[in-house]
Every structure is written in structure tokens, then in C-alpha cells.
UniProtKB/TrEMBL annotation:
The keyword Transmembrane applies. Gene3D superfamilies: 1.10.3730.20. The chain crosses the membrane at residues 32-54, 61-82, 88-108, 115-132, 144-162, 169-192, 212-231, 238-260. The keyword Transmembrane helix applies. It comes from Streptomyces aquilus. Keywords: Membrane, Transmembrane, Transmembrane helix. PANTHER family: ACYL-MALONYL CONDENSING ENZYME-RELATED, SOLUTE CARRIER FAMILY 35 MEMBER G2-RELATED. This is DMT family transporter. Belongs to the EamA transporter family. Residues 3-130, 144-283 form the EamA domain.
Length: 285
């Protein structure tokens, strides 16, 4: 079941990233983050009230609060790194985030078997290659590398924190709600600061009302992915859950191929194949 929930996480995150990437072509990235997370927060709030989730409030919610603080910072750093580029270097580097939860699992005493270790190595290599690493061309700015590494550390911390934020399903909804409220607060503050510096919060055509369904999907898919990852990490080894969940760049690349007819590079196709092999090794190990 760990593999099933972790793969669901990679599917949801991959589709959310694809939708978010489409939206940021027309709308500032910070606005996309804040609006999509606000929609998800409203839905989660209604679920928490319906389930009586407040009864699960406790010290573990600090993990959710911390994840909510770290997540937007990591996302902003990643977007800035992508803007500096080249994306062919930045995107694969972002997958280093998997090192954090895998490291936490090992510190806590998890010891994957030989087959699973092989699967981890093959899957991580596949994810990096699926990102289409740029092996030559424009030089990489030091700032882009630093921002990407900060973002990878932040994403990895969110992986680790959200896995510790609850012990049951009702508590998980409350933890995700707290995380999203914090996300919106941090993202909103960053958006306000950006506007104060003279950057637009909306495209020239005004608020993108026609994009609301996509914004809602991005926010809710991201929330659902956090939830399925937390379940995966509870049901089995964090090392396995984290690696399988990190396959989301493969999903994003395949979505771009399917919906936008973007052609995969040979190195991306090879990466997707290796990721699949790594997944099978992990699932059967």
C-alpha cells in the first residue's frame, strides 16, 4: 500500500505542477500560489468542520505549521531559479529534495533491502534524467544553483514534516488545513511585498476568472498529494515513500507530451524508463 499511495502522490504533484506551469504563463507565479492555496484552504476548512477535526488539535500541528512556513519559501526560490535558468539544469537539481526524507528514514533506523536500495538509485537517476538535464549550452548562474538547492532542501523538509503532522485521517485533514492557512499567510505577505516593489499581482487583462477551475485543481491536487504522501509514509518505510513520491517530474513531462504535444528528448524518455524500473524494484523489494 505504501507504493500505491506514494505513486498517487507523484501523479497528483506532477499534474499540479503541470497546471501551475500553464497558469504562470499568463499570471504571476505568486498570485497562482496564493489563490490556488486559498481555494484549497477553504475546502479543507469545510472538511475539518464537517469531521469535527478540531478535536485532534495537539502538539503535532507544529509540524504542519512548520511545513506551511517552509513550503512557500521553497516554491518562491524554485520559481526564481527557473526564471534565471537554464531550466534544463534547475529542474533536475530540484529532485535532490528526496535526500532529506530518505536521510531522515535512515537516521530513524530504516534499512531498505538490497533490491530497494537498487530501486532507490535507479529511480532517482531516472527522475533526474526525466527532467531533461542540460549538459551543454548557457552557463549556470551561481544564484540559480543556490536558489535551487535552497528550494530542494525546503521541499525535502516539507516531505519530512508533513509525515509527522498527524496520526489518523481526521488529524491529517486538520494538519493539512493548518499547513495551508500558513501557506496562504506566507505567500500573501510575499505577494504584498512584491506589489509594494512595483510588480503586478495580476495580468494586464485583470483577474483570470476563466482560470479558476485550473487554480482550484492545482490547489486541491497539491493538498491531496500531501495527504497521500503522509499516508504512504505511515504505512511503510519513509525511504521508499519519498523516492516513489519524487517521480512527479516524470508525470509533468508526460503531461506536457500528452496535452501540449511537447516532444520528449531521448534523455527524458530514458529517464522515464529508468524511473519505471526503479519503481518496480521498490514495489517488489
Amino acid at each position: 500500500m505504501t507504493a500505491l499511495f506514494a505513486l498517487a502522490t507523484s501523479l497528483l504533484w506532477g499534474l499540479a505542477d503541470f497546471g501551475g506551469g500553464l497558469l504562470t504563463r499568463r499570471t504571476p507565479a505568486l498570485t497562482v500560489v496564493v489563490v490556488s492555496q486559498a481555494i484549497a484552504t477553504a475546502v479543507l476548512g469545510a472538511v475539518v468542520v464537517a469531521l469535527g477535526g478540531w478535536s485532534e488539535a495537539g502538539p503535532r500541528l507544529w509540524f504542519a505549521f512548520a511545513a506551511g512556513l517552509v513550503g512557500p519559501v521553497a516554491m518562491i526560490c524554485f520559481y526564481k531559479a527557473l526564471a534565471l535558468g537554464p531550466m534544463g539544469v534547475v529542474s533536475p537539481l530540484g529532485t535532490l529534495s528526496v535526500a532529506v526524507p530518505v536521510g531522515v528514514g535512515l537516521v530513524l533506523g530504516e534499512r531498505p533491502g538490497p533490491m530497494q536500495f537498487a530501486g532507490i538509485a535507479v529511480a532517482v537517476l531516472g527522475v533526474v534524467l526525466a527532467g531533461g538535464p542540460q549538459l551543454k549550452g548557457a552557463p549556470v548562474q551561481r544564484e540559480a544553483i543556490v536558489l535551487t538547492l535552497i528550494a530542494a532542501l525546503g521541499f525535502g523538509m516539507v516531505f519530512a514534516l508533513i509525515a509527522e503532522a498527524s496520526t489518523n485521517v481526521t488529524g491529517l485533514f486538520l494538519a493539512l488545513f493548518v499547513q495551508r492557512v500558513t501557506n496562504v499567510a506566507v505567500g500573501g505577505a510575499a505577494l504584498y511585498a512584491s506589489v509594494r516593489r512595483g510588480n503586478p499581482a495580476l495580468p494586464a487583462t485583470g483577474f483570470p476568472w476563466s482560470s479558476l477551475p485550473t487554480l482550484a485543481f492545482v490547489g486541491l491536487a497539491d493538498v491531496a498529494a500531501n495527504g497521500t504522501y503522509a499516508v504512504a509514509a505511515r504505512l511503510g518505510p519513509v525511504t521508499v515513500a519519498a523516492v516513489l513520491a519524487s517521480l512527479y517530474p516524470v508525470v509533468t513531462a508526460l503531461a506536457a507530451r500528452g496535452f501540449l504535444s511537447e516532444r520528449l528528448k531521448a534523455i527524458q524518455a530514458a529517464g522515464a524508463g529508468l524511473a519505471l524500473v526503479g519503481t518496480l524494484l521498490l514495489a517488489t523489494g
